Amino acid sequence: MTIERADIEKLAELARIELNDATITETTRSIADVLALVDQLQAANTEGVTPMAHPTDAVQRLRPDVVTETNQREAFQAIAPAVEEGLYLVPKVID
Amino acid sequence: MHNKTLAEIIAGLNSGAFSSVEITGHLLNRIRQLDPQYNSFITVTAEAALASAEAADRQRASGNAPLFCGVPIAHKDIFCTNGVRTSCGSKMLDNFVPPYDATVVENFAQAGAVILGKTNMDEFAMGSSNETSYYGPVKNPWDVNCVPGGSSGGSAAALAARLTPGATATDTGGSIRQPAALCGVTGLKPTYGRVSRWGMVAFASSLDQAGPMARSAEDCALMLNAMASFDPRDSTSIDREVPDYTANLNQPLSSLKIGIPKEYFGEGLNPGTEQAVREALTEYEKQGATLVDISLPHSHLAVPAYYVIAPAEASANLSRFDGVRYGYRCEDPKDLRDLYMRTRGEGFGDEVKRRILVGAYCLSAGYYDAYYRKAQQVRHLIKQDFVDAFATVDVIMGPTSPSPAFAFGAKGDDPVAMYLEDVFTIATNLAGLPGMSLPCGFVDNRPVGLQIIGNYFDEGLMLNAAHQFQRATDWHQRAPEGLE
Lengths: 95, 484
Prior knowledge:
The complex is a heterodimer.
Chain A: H1 5-14, H2 24-38, H3 73-77, E1 83-84, E2 87-88
Antiparallel strand pairs in A: 1-2
Chain B: H1 6-15, H2 20-38, E1 41-44, H3 46-61, E2 72-76, H4 103-110, E3 114-119, H5 153-160, E4 166-171, H6 177-183, E5 186-189, E6 209-214, H7 217-227, E7 257-261, H8 271-286, E8 290-294, H9 302-317, H10 336-347, H11 350-363, H12 368-389, E9 395-399, H13 415-419, H14 426-431, E10 435-443, E11 446-454, H15 459-472
Parallel strand pairs in B: 2-3, 7-8, 7-9
Antiparallel strand pairs in B: 1-3, 4-6, 5-6, 5-10, 9-11, 10-11
């Protein structure tokens, strides 16, 4: 599996990470190295092996459907980059 | 006073030999004087520490003192602390002051502990050298030209430099055990689900586990008593009674069967490291334990499987950092896309970006089966290796890391070389098993760690085995020159 600069640019777009033009070549090279490492998996015989879901086969715990959280909007909004009248502010999305 | 173990501090406070204000003040002075050299703390909470030390002394005088009442410790900066910045070693969270405490932090507060501050770490716990921290690398107190290991390098270095007698840490692929080994301290990664992950910044949720670091196994047992709990707020927390981890420390090891995996003594292992580990095993034989040759045949697949699973989970977990609700936001975003792209481009460091991209790749359409599903199948094979081994042995032992601490920059531009630092530790995370590291010797004045891997929920036996070794040896009491 070879990975090209264009693949990295597409992944960065999907992951919403701006990559610096100066470092993208180096990023591509190092990710190709990591993928070469993980490609060693392909040699493993996994026929009939169930993918592991949990080390001790635990299952999702359920709880009664009741409200357990209290409203902490002010505490959460106090640490937000931009808020106004209880709302989180982002750049205009719809004209 | 700074050489005292947690057990000695608890005894000293109980007998009135010194007060919490005295020991806390002493350690804060030491941090102020020495830590500029080591950079092991990101935040020192001196004022709050002294205030809680005073309160602890009053509480003790009133005759009602919980186990850690007035005992100073430090938290890795990955645990949310109400009102105290929790950076996770990242520019992304440089301004993040959580409005709540992690369960681990709450548990230590209830036990009466005094918090000295928050320790340095690789960014989002991604690294094995502490070189990826936004706050600069931590220096190894044994040799300041060398890395302390990572990601819990700040906790390990602060212990080695005698700046704190105990510290919390986390381990996703070796992040407690490898820095403990490289800094000559004792650290334990419990069974997955034993300690709550609530309020601990998530990296790879199926692998992350918090645990104690200290200067002895006995101290790790004391800390684990306080840390471990069933927590309904963590959906993977295990509802199982927490035993007293100090209860069996003094059991003799005469019937102990120790598995020695041949895969952990092969190519790439530093000869000095191997010698120190072999001598430690001889000490166990001297105490009556039996060494049994075993094989963990899928060991070579642990690092490749980990570097699919961990980045995949990280790419999902770290999508929450979007510059909207908390943390870093870029300047003057021109639209929402620009806000996301630049916030994440500027807020994350190179290694974090690399892992998010690798994770996004492994999870993308068309590759999911070849990578993620395959890695989870291999994970099952790795777990089965351990299940088979524990049918005949009680614990498994080997080196924690392939070599002692290395120089800064030595693996800087080669992520794969860095990833191989965790070649002996990663498999236990994949299997969800407990693992620990304790000092067992030196190579060129740099510490070597012995790794003990236990069966599920067998932390008590591992601590027993480690404590018996530490009763017979003094590696764990050695201090770097000038820091005694």
